[in-house]
Amino acid sequence: MSDRPPSVADGLACPVPLSSPATVQRGHGGGGRMTKDLVERVFLAGADAAALRALHDGAVLDVPAGRLAISTDAFVVTPLFFPGGDIGSLAVHGTVNDLAMCGARPVALSAAFVLEEGFPIDDLARVAASMRAAAAAVGVPVVTGDTKVVDRGRGDGVYVVTTGVGVVREGARVDPRRAAPGDRVLVSGDLGVHGVVVLSVREGLRFETDLVSDSAPLHDLVAGVLDAAGDRVHVLRDPTRGGLASALVEIAESAGVAVALDERALPVPEPVRGACEILGLDPLAVANEGKCVAVVAPGAADAALAAMRAHPLGRRAAIVGEVVAGPAGRVTVGGRAGGARLLEMPRGEQLPRIC
Amino acid sequence: MSDRPPSVADGLACPVPLSSPATVQRGHGGGGRMTKDLVERVFLAGADAAALRALHDGAVLDVPAGRLAISTDAFVVTPLFFPGGDIGSLAVHGTVNDLAMCGARPVALSAAFVLEEGFPIDDLARVAASMRAAAAAVGVPVVTGDTKVVDRGRGDGVYVVTTGVGVVREGARVDPRRAAPGDRVLVSGDLGVHGVVVLSVREGLRFETDLVSDSAPLHDLVAGVLDAAGDRVHVLRDPTRGGLASALVEIAESAGVAVALDERALPVPEPVRGACEILGLDPLAVANEGKCVAVVAPGAADAALAAMRAHPLGRRAAIVGEVVAGPAGRVTVGGRAGGARLLEMPRGEQLPRIC
């Protein structure tokens, strides 16, 4: 019930005073001195410290009048560290991207941590540093947070929940119901990378190439697309869990339309295709963490594509299909042979704990 | 890796079709059809459905220009259901209260769920219904959410993270650094109730009275206090984890002042006092979930007290002490005998998993 004192093993691992154990203790979640110490040592090590120190359980910021976007995401990815990122950077990118898909410029993030008793503080510091770096790169502060500790054996080291607030850009009218027959479907780059990378680490698979997660913040790429095509950008979506398949089926269901994709235009890199064949996965249903789908009025498709390609994260962007009249939610992929297969929203998940 | 089909036990527990298993499956976290079904069945059963259905990974709302408050809280309470509430209502109240303590009127909540594979869907539905009821009572919509599933044996049924956005009231200037010598310290009612109730359920203790958690939304009580005392309300805080002790030490440290409490004025109900004596707990360090501390300029203390007492949740409000010049963070309690004991911020926690 009371603080478990640091174990001898903790002491051996890192010569710290008793007040700074090397692993997460139950007391770190108690809201007392240990919680305060952990927050100051690990979470406030960076640039937002001054703002956060002045505050307590909430943060206050100035916003202009207008439309505000809010998005929240829980991250339970395993392993916590993977090529190209970790749960910290992933959490920031995921939430920044959800805001971007609302046509919003991110203005603030919050972060909540559920920590497992015994989780190494060094690993937590690494996750926190990664979050700070990712947030700084986007220019969006983490303004408030919370930390709870659960018993050893519960949790998986750390779960992270990020929530983002953003201001919707003047003129943006992004809504899945706006997808209309004739609209072009764009993707901003290679598909299926994040899922295949995380799975490969977990399963100890090796590929000939050095594939790393595509986890990245898309706010800037999206701003370029909105600059180029304005309200002719009808829908934006980041195809994370469930991949492109889930994203497009959901959009098509919302709008009461069908989508016809061109298999030859879909950018699926060779290592992803190879890994998916071995593992029996459909690359179009594998998670991406730094890609966006845009459904754009036909007259604006070329401008949107050019805007994507002008951005470092969108060099391999492509127009991959078209919205068509048809049964709501029907998404087909036209193959090389001229036939078409139906793309379904996966029922459950191919890859658990991918984000 | 693929969906685990519902077990025979699931089928016996509740005669549902295969597409609606009675317990949480991994596939419910996959972002595909099962996630969508779960969200529609369990989370969208209520009034916000129309708004949420139209949206996807984020929500958009209109806000006036001004100061926006943001707060986030992770809830890992065990047990999930306790007298006077459950993790769902607690999560709504906790976040509404954090916003209220910023002087803000809550305008929207988000909710993220980390579910354990095998958790009964009926229990999840009960938590979701309780959240909806609590949010409806406050008049604040849950506008967006996320659901992830972790392996059986991880998690504890459900962890909930709520984030709230609120608009700071015109004229409110609530900031822990504003506590100044001479200010009066008020509490809105009986102390230590939530912690003692949750612990009693967990430990199978019984008390002679039917004590229930004080979990409640304080936005309305706080609005009354701000109406009555305006910017002469210097600090607001809800003394949750770590209780009144943590809250006051933290405020006193922020402002570089000391606090002198009058033991005789502190409203600690007899069953709480009794339970704490048996358990070796200090009731002033036990969590509250429906109480607020206010530090108010001396001339406004009576008006603030009257406003608290005029509210159903503040009938037992009291002026319990005074801010004094002294070493930063020093909080003392003057006892009946005239002596004073030092009240410290608990190092770790007396009561793990209390919220």
Structural topology:
Two copies of one chain form a homodimer.
Chain A: H1 8-13, H2 33-43, H3 49-53, E1 59-63, E2 66-75, E3 81-82, E4 85-86, H4 87-101, E5 104-116, H5 121-138, E6 142-150, E7 158-168, E8 184-187, H6 193-203, H7 219-229, E9 233-237, H8 243-255, E10 258-262, H9 270-279, E11 293-296, H10 301-310, E12 318-324, E13 331-334, E14 340-343
Parallel strand pairs in A: 5-6, 10-13
Antiparallel strand pairs in A: 2-7, 3-4, 5-7, 8-11, 8-12, 9-11, 10-12, 13-14
Helix pairs in contact in A: 4-5, 4-7, 7-10
Characterization of this structure:
Two copies of one chain form a homodimer. With 355 residues, chain A is α+β, with helices and mostly antiparallel strands. In chain A, helix 4 packs parallel to helix 5 and helix 7 runs antiparallel to helix 10. Chain A contains ten helices and 14 strands. The first copy, chain A, has helices at 8-13, 33-43, 49-53, 87-101, 121-138, 193-203, 219-229, 243-255, 270-279, 301-310, and strands at 59-63, 66-75, 81-82, 85-86, 104-116, 142-150, 158-168, 184-187, 233-237, 258-262, 293-296, 318-324, 331-334, 340-343. In chain A, the strands form three sheets. A seven-stranded mixed beta sheet of chain A has the order 9-11-8-12-10-13-14. In chain A, strands 2-7-5-6 form a four-stranded mixed beta sheet, covered by helices on one side. Chains A and B meet through helix 2, strand 1, strand 2, helix 4 and strand 5 of A and helix 2, strand 1, strand 2, strand 5 and strand 6 of B. Strand 2 of chain A pairs antiparallel with strand 1 (59-63) of chain B.
